[in-house]
């Protein structure tokens, strides 16, 4: 019997591969698969009704750990403008490499065969998802365009209102302003008063 490192239990054992049949390993495996299957289940719910959102650099850059592939996978699909929620999960679960790794994972860990299909996405499912995403994206883009147009119209209306207020203030205040300007100009044009000594000499 040689040493064996178990990725599920995260420990090195000296009982070889017999470890995978033990209660500790099987118990830990059930916990891992329950959480893993739940994540895939959440993603699977969006196949018929994909969710597209405006990109958020904090929320939409999440990853999840695929135990079968032993790799970090992007949870969503995004172009940094729009995000398809769970798109990364579904694409990964439908990939041939993931299916291959899933078969190996189930065999190596002696997992319940009834649960294997729960972490796999069929070609039909991913095709339907992509078709639905195309429709949702088209609607999303149209709604975004309408929103931008509404915002632009609102800005123009606000600018027009400010201009009208400014012009009305000028109409009220300009006569007074003009009077002050003319008064100052008249003062500048008046000849300066003669010095005191000049008037005496005359």
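^ structure tokens above, recovered residues below v
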């Amino acid at each position: 019997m040689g040493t064996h490192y178990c990725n599920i239990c995260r420990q090195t054992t000296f009982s070889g591969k017999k470890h995978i049949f033990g209660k500790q390993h099987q118990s830990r495996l059930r916990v891992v698969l329950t959480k893993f299957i739940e994540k895939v289940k959440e993603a699977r719910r969006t196949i018929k009704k994909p969710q597209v959102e405006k990109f958020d650099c904090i929320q939409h850059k999440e990853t999840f750990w695929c135990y079968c592939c032993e790799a970090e996978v992007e949870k969503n699909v995004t172009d940094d403008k729009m995000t398809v929620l769970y798109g990364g999960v579904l694409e990964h679960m439908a990939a041939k490499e993931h299916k291959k790794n899933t078969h190996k994972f189930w065999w190596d860990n002696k997992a319940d065969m009834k649960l294997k299909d729960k972490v796999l996405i069929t070609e039909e499912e991913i095709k339907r998802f992509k078709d639905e995403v195309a429709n949702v994206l088209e609607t999303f883009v149209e709604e975004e365009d309408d929103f931008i147009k509404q915002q632009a119209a609102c800005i123009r209306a606000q600018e027009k209102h400010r201009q009208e207020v400014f012009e009305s203030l000028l109409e009220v205040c300009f006569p007074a302003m003009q009077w002050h300007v003319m008064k100052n100009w008249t003062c500048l044009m008046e000849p300066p008063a003669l010095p005191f000594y000049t008037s005496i000499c005359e």
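The radius of gyration is 38 Å.
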